[in-house]
C-alpha cells in the first residue's frame, strides 16, 4: 500500500491501544492529517476489482467447503421492534442447529439481538459455543448522549453479551470531528472490558464516499475495534462487494503496519449463497486465508442462512430444495 | 426481389415476467415439419428450471390470493390478446405442425375458445367441487378447493399450441403457478404465448415457459422439493416412469400422460387434478328457538 509515514510506537494514557500508529491520535489535527493523508480511493478500479472477483466459479467440493464456512460465519440477526423472547429463543435454537435434519451442519457464529434480549439469547445458546452479540450505543442512529450509549453497552455486557456492535456518530464523522468519534469508540471499548469483542459499525451507506469509508476504517481500527462492520441493515445501501473490499484492504494494511489483526463484518443485503461466496472470495484474495475464520470474518444476515441451508441440502441430495424445508423466521 | 433485409425474431424464454436467454447460452435449431430451419430456440438448462421455480413460487401468493373473478378477467384478457395475434399464431402453428393455413386457423380459433372456456371456470369450479357438507352436529362443514402450488407442466409434444393451452390454462385458472416445458420440436408457439401473457395483466412468474430437451429440464423439476405437482402430458412412457419416481420424493401430485383428443371439449379433470380440497369445521353453537346462542 502506498501509504502514510510510519509512526513509532509510543505509550499513551487511557484505554487507547498502543502500536506503531498511536501518535496520530494525539490531537484532532494529527488525526485529521493522518486520515486525510490516506491515499484516495480509485472508485472505478475498486468496483472493477470487486466485480471481477465476483466472477469466480466455485463448484462441488469447494462450494461445499464455502457453504459450511459461510454458515459458521453468520451472525444470525433479529433487530426488529417486534422481537419477542419467543422469537429470540427460536433464533437461538436455529443458530445451534441450523439444519435439524442434518447434524453435520456447523453452528452459526453468533446470534445478534438488541440489548434487552441478550439474557434470553444467552440462555437459548448456552453450552453450544454460539456467541451472543448485541447492538448497543443507541442503535441504529447512534443519536444519544455518550453516557446513554455507554449505559447501553454496560447493560448488554452485564447481561452476558460476548460481542458488542456499536454504531459510530456519523454526524460527527461527516462534520470532520474525527477525535470525537475516536474518543467515543475508545470509551465504548473500555466499557466492553475484556469480556466482549467490539464491532464498530460505520453505516457505509451514509458515509457517501469511498474515501470516507477508508478513513472510518482506519479511525475505527486506531481506536481499538476488534471488528469493523459495514452497516446496520437499516438504510437503503448496505454491504456491497466494493465497500467490503475496501475495508478488507484496510484491515490487511493495518496488520502490516501494526501487527494487529482486525475482523470485518459486512451486514445487510447479503441474501444468497452466491453473494456470500463472492464475499469469501474477496476475503481470500484481499486479506488472505488468515481471515477465513469466524473469528475474523462474519456475515450480518438473517435470510442468508436459509439460502445457505437450501444449497447445502442440494449438494447433499442432488435435488433442489425449497423454502418448505427451512424455518420461517 | 426486395432489397430489404429480413428481420428474424430472437425467440427467448419467458421467466418471471421477463424474457431471458438460457442461462447456459445454448440454443438449438427448430425446423418445420419438412425440415426447413425456422428459428433458433433457447436450449434451457436445469438452472433455468430452478430460476423458473423461484419465479413461480414468488408469484404464487399473489395469484392464488387473487379473487377467482379477477383471475377470470385476467385470463379473458389473454384470450383477447391471442385474438389480436391470430395471424402470427396461424403461421407458427402451420409451420410447426405442417398444417394448411385453413386448418391452422381452425386450431388457433379452437385454442382461443379453449382459453375463454377456462377463463369462465375460475369462479365456478369451487361451486362444482366444493360446498357445504351435511353433518349431524352443530357445525358448518365446508369443503373448498385450493390450488396446489407450483406445477411443472410438460406440454404435449405433438399439439404445439392447442395442446399447450389445454394443459396450461387449467393449471393457472385454478390459482396455481406454472413452469411449462414447451414441445421439444415445436416450441415457437409456446414462446410466443409468453409474449402474449406478458402483455395481458398476468403477473410475472405465474406462467414461465422454457424450451429445450424435455428430458433434460423435466428431471430436475420432478425432483425439485419446491415443485408441488407435475403434469406429464409431454413425456413418453419411459420418461414418465422415471419422472414419477423422482416426483415421489416430496409426494408431488402427478398427472400421468394419457391419450387426449385436444379438439374435444375437456372436462374439469385437468382443473381438479391440481386442486386440493380443504375441509373446515366451524362450530355454530346450539340453535334454540331464538336462533343463535352467541
Automatic annotation (TrEMBL), chain A:
Which biological process terms from the Gene Ontology are attached to this UniProt entry? carbohydrate catabolic process; deoxyribonucleotide catabolic process
Q: Which GO terms describe its cellular component?
A: cytoplasm
Family annotation (SMART domains): DeoC
- What UniProt keywords are attached to this protein's entry? Lyase, Schiff base
For this protein, what is any one GO molecular function term? Answer: deoxyribose-phosphate aldolase activity
Q: Give the catalytic activity.
A: 2-deoxy-D-ribose 5-phosphate = D-glyceraldehyde 3-phosphate + acetaldehyde
Q: Does the keyword Lyase apply?
A: yes
Q: Where is this region: Disordered?
A: 1-21
CDD domains, A to Z: DeoC (cd00959)
Tell me its family: Belongs to the DeoC/FbaB aldolase family. DeoC type 2 subfamily.
Q: What is this protein called?
A: Deoxyribose-phosphate aldolase
User: Which organism is this protein's natural source?
Assistant: Streptomyces actinomycinicus
From TrEMBL, chain B:
Which molecular-function annotation in GO is an example for this chain?
oxidoreductase activity
Keyword hit for Transmembrane: no
The record's keywords, sorted A to Z, are: Oxidoreductase
Q: Which residue ranges does the record assign to the Aldehyde dehydrogenase domain?
A: 23-254
This protein is called Aldehyde dehydrogenase family protein
Pfam families documented for this protein: Aldedh
Reading the lineage from the top rank, the first entry is Bacteria
Q: Which organism is it from?
A: Streptomyces actinomycinicus
Amino acid at each position: 500500500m502506498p501509504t502514510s509515514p510510519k509512526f513509532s510506537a509510543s505509550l499513551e494514557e487511557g484505554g487507547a491501544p498502543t502500536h506503531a500508529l498511536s501518535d496520530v491520535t494525539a490531537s484532532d489535527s494529527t488525526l485529521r492529517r493522518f486520515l486525510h493523508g490516506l491515499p484516495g480511493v480509485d472508485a472505478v478500479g475498486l468496483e472493477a476489482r470487486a466485480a471481477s472477483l465476483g466472477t469466480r466459479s466455485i463448484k462441488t467440493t469447494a462450494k461445499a467447503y464455502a457453504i459450511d464456512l459461510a454458515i459458521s460465519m453468520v451472525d444470525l440477526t433479529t433487530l426488529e421492534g417486534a422481537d419477542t423472547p419467543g422469537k429470540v429463543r427460536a433464533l437461538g435454537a436455529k443458530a445451534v442447529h441450523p439444519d435439524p435434519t442434518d447434524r453435520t451442519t456447523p453452528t452459526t457464529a453468533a446470534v445478534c439481538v438488541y440489548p434487552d434480549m441478550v439474557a434470553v439469547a444467552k440462555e437459548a445458546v448456552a453450552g453450544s459455543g454460539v456467541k451472543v452479540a448485541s447492538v448497543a450505543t443507541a442503535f441504529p442512529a447512534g443519536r444519544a448522549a455518550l453516557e446513554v450509549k455507554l449505559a447501553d453497552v454496560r447493560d448488554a455486557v452485564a447481561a452476558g453479551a460476548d460481542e458488542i456492535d456499536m454504531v459510530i456518530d456519523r454526524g460527527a464523522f461527516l462534520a470532520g470531528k474525527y477525535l470525537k468519534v475516536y474518543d467515543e469508540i475508545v470509551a465504548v471499548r473500555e466499557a466492553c472490558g475484556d469480556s466482549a469483542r467490539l464491532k464498530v459499525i460505520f453505516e457505509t451507506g451514509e458515509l457517501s464516499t469511498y474515501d470516507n469509508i477508508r478513513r472510518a476504517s482506519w479511525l475505527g481500527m486506531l481506536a481499538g475495534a476488534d471488528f469493523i462492520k459495514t452497516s446496520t441493515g437499516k438504510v437503503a445501501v448496505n454491504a456491497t462487494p466494493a465497500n467490503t473490499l475496501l475495508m478488507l484492504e484496510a484491515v490487511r494494511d493495518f496488520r502490516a503496519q501494526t501487527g494487529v489483526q482486525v475482523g470485518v463484518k459486512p451486514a445487510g443485503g447479503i441474501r444468497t449463497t452466491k453473494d456470500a461466496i463472492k464475499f469469501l472470495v474477496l476475503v481470500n484474495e484481499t486479506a488472505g486465508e488468515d481471515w477465513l475464520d469466524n473469528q475474523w470474518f462474519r456475515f450480518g444476515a438473517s435470510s442468508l442462512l436459509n439460502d445457505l441451508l437450501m444449497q447445502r441440502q442440494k449438494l447433499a441430495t442432488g435435488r433442489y430444495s425449497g423454502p418448505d424445508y427451512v424455518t420461517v423466521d | 426481389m426486395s432489397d430489404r433485409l429480413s428481420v428474424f425474431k430472437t425467440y427467448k424464454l419467458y421467466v418471471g415476467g421477463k424474457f431471458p436467454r438460457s442461462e447456459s447460452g445454448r440454443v438449438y435449431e427448430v425446423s418445420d415439419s419438412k425440415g426447413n430451419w425456422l428459428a433458433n430456440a433457447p436450449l434451457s438448462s436445469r438452472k433455468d428450471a430452478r430460476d423458473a421455480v423461484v419465479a413461480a413460487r414468488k408469484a404464487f401468493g399473489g395469484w392464488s390470493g387473487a379473487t377467482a373473478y379477477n383471475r377470470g378477467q385476467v385470463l379473458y384478457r389473454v384470450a383477447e390478446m391471442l385474438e389480436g395475434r391470430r395471424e402470427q399464431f396461424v403461421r407458427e402453428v402451420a409451420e410447426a405442425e405442417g398444417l394448411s393455413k385453413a386448418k391452422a386457423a381452425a386450431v388457433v380459433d379452437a385454442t382461443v375458445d379453449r382459453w375463454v372456456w377456462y377463463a369462465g371456470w375460475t369462479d365456478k369450479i369451487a361451486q362444482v367441487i366444493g360446498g357445504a357438507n351435511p353433518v349431524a352436529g352443530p357445525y358448518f362443514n365446508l369443503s373448498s378447493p385450493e390450488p396446489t402450488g407450483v406445477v411443472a407442466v410438460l406440454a404435449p409434444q405433438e399439439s404445439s399450441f392447442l395442446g399447450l393451452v389445454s394443459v396450461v390454462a387449467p393449471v393457472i385458472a385454478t390459482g396455481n403457478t406454472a413452469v411449462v416445458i414447451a414441445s421439444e420440436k415445436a416450441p415457437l408457439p409456446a414462446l410466443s404465448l409468453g409474449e402474449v401473457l406478458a402483455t395481458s395483466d398476468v403477473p410475472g412468474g405465474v406462467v414461465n415457459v422454457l424450451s429445450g430437451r424435455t428430458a433434460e429440464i423435466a428431471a430436475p423439476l420432478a425432483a425439485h422439493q419446491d415443485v408441488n405437482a407435475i403434469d406429464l402430458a409431454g413425456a413418453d412412457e419411459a420418461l414418465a416412469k422415471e419422472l414419477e419416481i423422482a416426483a415421489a420424493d416430496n409426494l408431488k401430485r402427478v398427472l400421468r400422460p394419457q391419450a387426449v383428443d385436444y379438439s374435444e371439449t375437456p372436462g374439469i379433470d385437468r382443473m381438479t387434478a391440481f386442486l386440493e380440497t380443504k375441509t373446515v369445521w366451524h362450530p355454530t353453537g346450539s340453535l334454540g328457538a331464538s336462533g343463535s346462542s352467541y
